[in-house]
Amino acid sequence: MLLVLDLFLVVVAGGLWVAAWPLRGTKAGAAVLIASVLATAARAAVVALLGGAGWWFVPDRLVTAVPLALLSGVVTVTMVRRRTPPAPVLIAAAYVAVAGIAMQFLVGYPVTVGAVAAVFGSGAAALLVWRLPAGAARVAVVATTAGALLAAGVTAAVGSRLPDELDHNAHGADSGHAAHAGSATAPGVSVADLRGPSRTPTRKFTLTARAATVTLPSGATVDAWTFNSQVPGPELRVTQGDVVEVTLRNELPGIGVTLHWHGYDVPVGEDGVAGVTQNAVAPGGTFVYRFEAKDVGSYWYHSHEMSSEAVRKGLYGTLVVTPDRTEPQETDFTLPVHRFDSGATILGGSDRRQTRDVPAGRRVRLRLVNTDNDAHRVAVGGTPYTVSAIDGRDLNGPTVLTAETTLRLPAGGRYDVVFTMPAGAVHVMVDGRTSDGLLLGTGAMPTHPAGTDLDITQYGTSAPGPFDRYDKDHTLVLDRLVRFLDGMPSYAYTVNGTVYPDIPPLLVDRGDAVRTTVVNRGTESHPMHLHGHHVLVLSRNGRPVTGSPLWLDTFDVLPGEVWQVAFRADNPGIWLDHCHNLPHAKQGMVLHVAYRGVTSPFTVGRRTPNHPE
Ligand code: C2O
Ligand code: CU
């Protein structure tokens, strides 16, 4: 709310101060001036409130908000004395107000010396030009200023161009990527050597990527990219302790493919990220993945080559690992929610209401999986239920919920819902639609009262966490700023003011307890996903988690939110950490968590087969 209000006020104040100059001395001018002063005061208040939410939200705003507040003070005083404010004050106010808009879209957090110099330097230059008589000196100032700004722009554009081939070992010595290469004392180990077990697999699957036209139950057709000609791909259901082998074959026309095990903490060589942990599998090629099914729970898989396009088009499926003991009488439905470009939304494989017979008294587990880029809201009507697990990790002491509670699944996230089948029907509703979803049992369609979202940070019973100190502390400030992406100016998604591949990796050593603060300065939510690890949520907006310990692989940082999470660096590799709104990842919001001493022989870029996002 405050972030949107601030954006609105900075634009309004900018417009008003600019309008005040030509109208000065008139009645309308006086009115505009009063409005400018009021807008500036309102913005100062909003900036102060934002500061209360955390320091990260204000430095760029203070750079222009403080001088503008002082200038409007001068304007107010002169107006009270019934005079027209002096021209230089009005011009300066108009300039600073416009600079405030520029700061909003260009600078963000952290504020660099260069950014402040550019803003105030060009202001000073403009003032000089205005004061100087026409002639050589004036031309010189204009030329120097324009030249400096142009040079900075061109340098940024050229610097953002991706090389034809970018490796992860030598890139950006200053950014710390160089440290991947290891040191004299610890020679590097390659991600290609950190593979799954070689013993005989107990479960084998083959997934063949191919293009197919899929007809949905409503009759709508989708030109999809599929695994085994179906969307979603086959559900891979294994038992804890299995050694799983999945052979990926690619029959797509001219498009590479990989398999990434979303939320499953496999060895890095099995993680399936094109250009980081393997080469994308070319058409006609194969790749064999192997991992041990150590953790039970609900997960999913998807291609991580051109993922923003590939997942959307259908290259995904679910992975379910059940405990070794055969759960007595549990009926279990895996319900991935997906949306195609056409807007068609499917739950499982269907865009229509599905019905299933379940006898009363049976224990039912719904495995809700969000494979879309946006959050989806699920409501369960007709029975009390519990959320027994999130992101494949059981919750401690989950309490009983009713239809009045809705579950907001972030992109990439999974919730397990458990209940005992009542005598009547149960309906699983997605995004408020009663026309589709899943209807279990017989009897009248249950009602769906208006509900509020479950706050997972206060759900269940707390338990002590494993961390008592932290070896590494990082802060990631998420934002949306104008940046060059591979040479092209774009309204990109940034981390600490930069975009992939320039975001410095989080360097960790094996065994480290790593704490990360994630701040969202933008106006869109960012479901952040760390590969290869689950993170324990410590706090949200400064409030510690009071419910069950939450071990997540995807946590949704809403606009203005500050999350603090921690993980144990116990899975050596080079891991992606990115927004799972995949178009955001494609537009910059990707970084690596890199273990010191781990190298990758794989590269990304135009001259390679690898374009992970
Ligand atoms: Cu499910 Cu890197 O993603
Ligand atoms: Cu995002």
From TrEMBL:
Residues 172-188 have a biased composition (Low complexity). The keyword Metal-binding applies. Residues 165-201 are annotated as: Disordered. InterPro entries: Cu-oxidase-like_N, Cu-oxidase_C, Cu-oxidase_fam, Cu_oxidase_Cu_BS, Cupredoxin. CDD domains: CuRO_D2_2dMcoN_like. Keywords: Membrane, Metal-binding, Oxidoreductase, Transmembrane, Transmembrane helix. Residues 212-324, 490-594 form the Plastocyanin-like domain. The chain crosses the membrane at residues 6-23, 30-56, 62-80, 87-107, 113-132, 139-159. One of its GO terms (molecular function) is oxidoreductase activity. Signal peptide: none annotated. Pfam families: Cu-oxidase_2, Cu-oxidase_3. This is FtsP/CotA-like multicopper oxidase with cupredoxin domain.
